[in-house]
Amino acid sequence: IKIGPFDFEKKCESLAQVTDGFSGREIAKLLAACQASAYASEDGTLTEEMIDKKLKDALESHRKKVAWRAEEER
C-alpha cells in the first residue's frame, strides 16, 4: 500500500482524537476497511478521502452501538 499526498501523521493524530471511546475492535475494523479500500483502488494508494469515508461509516456504527447499549440499560 502506498500513502497518498497528505500528512499521514496528522491524519492519524486526528483519528486518535475522533475515535476516543471506540473499542479496540472498532478501531481495528476501521483500519482494516481503510486497508481494503487501498488494495481495491486502481493503484494501491490510500487516500485521505478513503480514510474519511471509512471514518464516517465507523462513526455511524459507533453511534448506533452506543444508542443500542443505552436503550438496553433502560
TrEMBL record:
The record's GO molecular-function terms, alphabetically, read: zinc ion binding
What is the superkingdom listed in this entry's lineage?
A: Eukaryota
Keywords, ordered alphabetically: Coiled coil
Biological processes annotated in GO: mitochondrion organization
GO CC field = mitochondrion
Q: What is this protein called?
A: Uncharacterized protein
